[in-house]
Amino acid sequence: MIDYIEKIRHTNSGNFFLIAGPCVVENEKICFTVAEKALEITNKLGIPYIFKASFKKANRSRLDSFTGVGDRKGLEIIAKIGKELQIPVLTDIHTEADAALAAEYVDVLQIPAFLCRQTELLVAAAKTGKTVNIKKGQFLSPSAMRFAIDKVRKGRGSINNVHKINNDKIMLTERGTTFGYNDLVVDFRGIPEMKKFNVPVIVDVTHSLQRPNQPEGITGGNPEMISAIASAAIAVGADGIFLETHPNPAAALSDGANMLPLSELEDLLKRLVKIRKAIG
Known about the structure:
The strands form three sheets. Strands 1-2-3-4-5-6-9-12 form an eight-stranded parallel barrel, surrounded by five helices. Strands 7-8 form a two-stranded antiparallel ribbon. The two termini are 16 Å apart. The chain is α/β, with parallel strands linked by helices. It has one domain: TIM Barrel (Alpha-Beta Barrel), CATH 3.20.20. The protein is 32% helix and 17% strand.
């Protein structure tokens, strides 16, 4: 289902695929530590793997929050991982200029959930020819994501001039639905609903467990539920799992409150592989 992504491995294993890495590029060492460990585990278990990291964080709650090491430097580190480890790499984008820039370095461009209705951003990502992973907005129904898919597939030349871009390399990611002001819930009915669009459907396990909009301006989380959400995702037929992991989440510079410790990744993936085999 994702054979079109260059350097992807184990596509005939029958397993789900994994998108995993730190939230943001903090430094080269952490990125390589995570990527190498995840690659070792996924090779052992026969799981297709895509490394992810944000080259910059443009949507932090507070002005003084860490946003990255510099655009080019962050992208160069992500690209280096892809080249040296021979794995596909992903990063998220926030503007049309980001799409053109990031496409020089990565295999998959990701549209953040808050921006999934931004037409020009989706069209710009589509025009690069890269695979586009669209995160479902916390405010949208699963069925509404068909319009985001159309924007990538068809594009827009002007307000009244729709034209075909022919980019069918699209993935959708569920990342929770707003529940009040400070919580998210995952409605697993949305997974089969979005699979009707004939694109791979992913569940973003760790972001779905965020506790946003905290008074101190630092997003909280509920990481003890990672295994439960991931297991349910595989059980209902998700094609892929997205999660953020770090050698020491408590020291992470972004989203540490909902990350999976890297040391726990292998046990989690073994559990998910068993569930995948059980459901056929």
